[in-house]
């Protein structure tokens, strides 16, 4: 791993792996200084808990801690392909079967459209932030600027955990689909270690090797990664085109006759499942620091890719229904067995190839997003700052990329798919909800400018939006078929959003590109994401709580003090620079 150099020419960070690489802050220089820091935990919590960063800090001072800058080599074309590659993995080949057969029937097309529009609302919120704050931290940066250090830290810690689980899951699925291509059982491509627990006994070297190859690609060049992603995604799209053509030539329109067998509830339940086929674009937002023209390229890339994905998902789900009646669709391998039902057994190889290509690009986007998240977290010193280093030669975050790949590979090497699938939690939906909320705060509150009256009204309306959204989701989750609950919660959400629109003055306008129809679209994005969270199983909330508790322990004992020292150092440096400028200005005036 590469390290930066200090001004005397010595190594500052990297792999010599001294304590200074991990904890260089003043609070960790001795036992006495650390004990002193712990004694001041309460005051430091007050200082950092709601501390908000500023745009110029994230764009200049914080980013400058990486020593080197990432190369700005990406354009809207690259972002479109990254968007498609990051989102369109194997989800379409897996989730469609369960949604169509068990919930929505042929109306799965409508379910994909609803979940796609929900994802598009989140994309719009991300796009405004990414244009205004084109830095590597993605949602971590957006939340840090608007909702404060603590919220950003908890959110980022959870999403990194989900990235690791998702990366390991996709890597092991890669092995499973490769085995399918060779007519083998997936575990025949793995080594069985009988002395290990059953869920960890099928060792998967292929998953680890694929992850490491993707890591090498990501480390060498972001533009090179973009070219590889584009080629792999084109192959994936050709496979999807084959599926569409077969559906049009072999399909039976009569399969759409019983369109929505389970009514609107079945459609919405399917939408909550299918929403997870659209996640991944948040990782693409972390590439903002490497985009040539953020004001043009990011909106075209992020929004354009999501619109293409929504269209493709709707067409593919309609094709599946054309090929086979919804009640005959296999839940685990819908497309493969649908082709077998019409006598095209060989088509399963094409489907497996498409899934392999899709999972490869998802792995690439996953590690790119992970590394850039971690890089910016390292810049704030909430994670070891050696992770913030940008390689001088490749201008990519090599340290963070290698570390996250090693974690992914170890988890993927040992852990079964069943365990990994059960670990995927509600974090993504939580982050999307918080980003929408942060956008409302950004538009309606500016410290030192917004009046106390407008601030108080903003707090009131936000609390009503949050409360009514949660109440609607809970009412749905407990399975009430009546409309009385919705007749109360939905109007409260509407009135609160209307009040925010009419009674609170907008404090900040976006400089280059902004979400239209504010506050309606961000408020709707928050409400729909919370609504989908109601469909997540209770075990996910337990896992979220346990992991968040571990994050809190790390925060109280390490991250709080490291980030406090880093913020204090930045403040002192800025104050010294300002004082120097004032002195120089005064001396100049005396001279004249």
Automatic annotation (TrEMBL):
The chain crosses the membrane at residues 74-95, 107-129, 150-171, 205-221, 228-247, 267-288, 300-326, 346-369, 398-417, 423-446, 458-478, 484-504, 516-535, 541-560. It is found in: Membrane. It is a multi-pass membrane protein. GO terms for molecular function: L-glutamate transmembrane transporter activity; L-lysine transmembrane transporter activity. The keyword Membrane applies. Belongs to the amino acid-polyamine-organocation (APC) superfamily. Cationic amino acid transporter (CAT) (TC 2.A.3.3) family. This is Cationic amino acid transporter C-terminal domain-containing protein. It comes from Gossypium darwinii.
């Amino acid at each position: 791993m590469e390290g930066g150099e200090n001004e005397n020419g010595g190594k500052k960070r990297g792999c010599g792996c001294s304590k200074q690489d991990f904890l260089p802050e003043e609070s960790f220089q001795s036992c006495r200084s650390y004990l002193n820091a712990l004694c001041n935990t309460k005051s430091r919590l007050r200082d950092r808990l709601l501390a908000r960063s500023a745009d110029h800090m994230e764009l200049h001072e914080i980013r400058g801690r990486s020593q080197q800058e990432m190369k700005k080599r990406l354009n809207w074309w690259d972002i479109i392909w990254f968007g498609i590659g990051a989102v369109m993995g194997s989800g379409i080949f897996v989730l469609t079967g369960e949604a169509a057969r068990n919930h929505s029937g042929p109306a799965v097309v409508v379910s994909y459209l609803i979940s796609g529009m929900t994802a598009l609302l989140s994309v719009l919120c991300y796009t405004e932030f990414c244009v205004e704050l084109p830095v590597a931290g993605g949602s971590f940066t957006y939340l840090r600027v608007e909702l404060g250090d603590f919220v950003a830290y908890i959110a980022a810690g959870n999403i990194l955990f989900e990235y690791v689980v998702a990366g390991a899951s996709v890597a092991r699925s890669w092995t499973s689909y490769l085995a399918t291509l060779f007519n083998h059982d997936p575990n025949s491509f793995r080594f069985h270690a009988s002395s290990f627990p059953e869920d960890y006994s099928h060792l998967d070297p292929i998953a680890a090797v694929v992850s490491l190859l993707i890591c090498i690609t990501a480390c060498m060049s972001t533009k090179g990664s973009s070219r590889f992603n584009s080629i792999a995604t084109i192959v994936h799209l050709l496979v999807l085109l084959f599926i569409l053509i077969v559906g049009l030539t072999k399909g039976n329109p009569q399969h759409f006759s019983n369109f929505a067998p389970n009514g609107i509830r079945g459609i919405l339940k399917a939408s909550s499942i299918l929403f997870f086929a659209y996640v991944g674009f948040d990782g693409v937002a972390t590439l903002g620091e490497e985009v040539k023209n953020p004001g043009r390229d990011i909106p075209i890339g992020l929004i354009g890719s999501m619109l293409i994905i929504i269209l493709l998902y709707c067409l593919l789900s309609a094709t599946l229904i054309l090929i086979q009646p919804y009640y005959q669709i296999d839940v685990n391998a819908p497309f493969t067995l649908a082709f077998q039902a019409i006598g095209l057994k060989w088509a399963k190889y094409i489907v497996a190839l498409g899934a392999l290509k899709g999972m490869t690009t998802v792995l690439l986007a996953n590690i790119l997003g992970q590394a850039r998240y971690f890089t910016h977290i390292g810049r704030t010193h909430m994670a070891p700052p050696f992770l913030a280093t940008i390689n001088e030669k490749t201008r990519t975050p090599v340290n963070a990329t290698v570390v996250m790949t090693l974690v992914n590979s170890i988890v993927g090497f040992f852990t079964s798919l069943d365990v990994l699938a059960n670990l995927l939690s509600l974090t993504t939906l939580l982050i999307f909800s918080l980003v929408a909320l942060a956008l409302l705060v950004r538009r309606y509150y500016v410290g030192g400018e917004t009046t106390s009256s407008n601030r108080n009204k903003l707090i009131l309306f936000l609390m009503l939006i949050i409360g009514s959204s949660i109440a609607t989701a809970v009412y749905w989750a407990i399975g009430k078929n009546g409309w009385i609950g919705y007749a109360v919660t939905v109007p409260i959400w509407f009135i609160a959003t209307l009040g925010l629109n009419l009674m609170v003055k907008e404090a900040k306008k976006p400089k280059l590109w902004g979400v239209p129809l504010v506050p309606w679209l961000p408020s709707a994005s928050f409400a729909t994401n919370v609504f989908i969270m109601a469909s997540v199983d209770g075990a996910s909330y337990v896992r979220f709580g346990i992991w968040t508790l571990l994050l809190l322990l790390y925060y109280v004992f390490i991250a709080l003090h490291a980030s406090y020292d880093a913020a204090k150092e930045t403040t002192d440096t800025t104050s010294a620079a300002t004082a120097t400028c004032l002195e120089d200005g005064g001396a100049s005036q005396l001279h004249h």
